[in-house]
Amino acid sequence: MSCRLRPTTGNFFTYPHQQYQAPKASIATNLYQRASETAYKQQNRLYSAPAPGSVPFSKQKYVPTSGTYPKGFLASGIHVGVKPSNTQFPDLALLASLTPCSGAAVFTQNKFQAAPVTISRRVLEPSGEGIRAIIVNSGCANAVTGKGGLDDATAMGSTVDSCFARSEGSPAGASTTLVMSTGVIGQRLPISKILRAIPNAYSALSSTHTDWLLAARAICTTDTFPKLLSRTFSLPSSPGITYSLAGMTKGAGMIHPNMATLLGMLFTDAPIPAKTLQPLLAHAVDRSFNAISVDGDTSTNDTLALLANGAAGGRPVTSAESEDGRAFTEIITSFTQELSQLVVRDGEGATKFVRVRVINASSFHDARKIASTIARSPLVKTALYGKDANWGRILCAIGYTDGLGPGAVVPEKTSVSFVPTDGSTALKLLVKGEPESVDEARAGMILGEEDLEILVDLGGGEGGAGKEEASYWFCDFSHVSAVLDYTAYCLLFTARFNH
């Protein structure tokens, strides 16, 4: 049972099972009450898409004002009211292609997989070809909802299919629509309301930046800003053709592989068949969406899909090992890293964006395991929030990392540094197993910035020849439940004994 303190009126603190009245003159009580009220206001997050103008000032720089979107793809975001409390914000997104697409996806590894995950797997299973659309609702996850939830997800997809069939005068066949849902687990969708709204979403489809942004807003839950990116690129075999890549994602809590607790959609007008898309996407996700962490929890609904309609023309990318395949691998990996990092920047309670980079490892696997362990360490995350250069917590995490190869970590070869993002000299904390004399004032300045890099150099491992590296992106812990309540509990405990 949760035992979190919650401020109420007066000098009371409420537990799930009792209420305690602290002494009116208690300094500890008053400190906690003022701090908790401030923190509550700072951490309050609406469980619906952000209203226009409500994006926090510090996050507005991440919301694009324009974009270059792939040919033949359209987007819309409309209000349905999936949650009764949402009376105006978009919560149903439709992304569609004018022509059939190749599709690929990666899904959550959680044992309790939501109905939309099951249905989308089925749609992709035959060949991954012929996909036309992705329909997404926020406000209800349609997870752990039994057969009824599967029926609801199926109905959402088939309703979109019917819209295509009616507008194109063709009979509806096997489903060509992927389905995603996000929100509260264990509740059924207001399916009649959603099915009635889908034709409106279809009619609202457009290629404008405004409509792409509305779609990105519509998939938000506890997000404080919509996460949308686009870019152009070229491929070696078709240097004269400009291709486009666009993507949107949502996520702020329950973020940790595998997948990374979120929904994501990627779209390109490059000609790439499904059999090539899947390995390209898997490679990119392993280095992006599966390399981020906010709170260590993995949800029931994680899905990241990639659609390619080939509308820009050019030679098909028939192999991941071809020159075009390798080029697109670099492009999609860089793009998904940038997109996934927006999730970390919007982490619930986050005040810092941190990259941990492990270099000179014996293998990519070892580097990634160590980076992951550091990224999910509560002690590291709370130290960063407190601007505490406690590098011993980083070493501790390195030392207890499971599943490493023989000789992966040699203490006498291990170095740790804080790397400022302003380009100034790194602050060395540990050099080949020997502690450095740390300039605490400079450490405080570095840790006071929003962005930070932790560099771990394993010195090549036992054999000294390791050159592999891996990165992980994560945020600090500043949750009321993770930091403030623990401190308040200690203060209240002291107040009781001093009374």
Using brief descriptors, characterize the structure shown.
499 residues, 18 strands
Question: Can you describe what's shown?
Answer:
The strands form three sheets. Strands 4, 5, 6, 7, 8, 9, 10 and 12 form an eight-stranded mixed β-sheet that branches. Strands 11-18-13-17-14-15-16 form a seven-stranded mixed β-sheet, sandwiched between helices. It has a three-stranded antiparallel β-sheet with strand order 1-2-3. The protein is globular and about 75 Å long. 33% of the residues lie in helices and 24% in strands. A hairpin with a 4-residue loop joins strand 1 and strand 2. The model is unreliable at 1-49, 253-261, 296-300 and 480-499 (pLDDT under 50). It has helices spanning 27-43, 115-124, 146-168, 191-203, 209-218, 274-286, 323-345, 364-375, 378-385, 391-399, 440-447, 480-498, and strands at residues 6-7, 12-14, 19-21, 73-78, 92-107, 129-140, 177-184, 227-235, 238-250, 263-268, 292-293, 303-308, 353-361, 415-419, 427-431, 434-435, 451-457, 468-475. By secondary structure, the chain is α+β, with helices and mostly antiparallel strands.
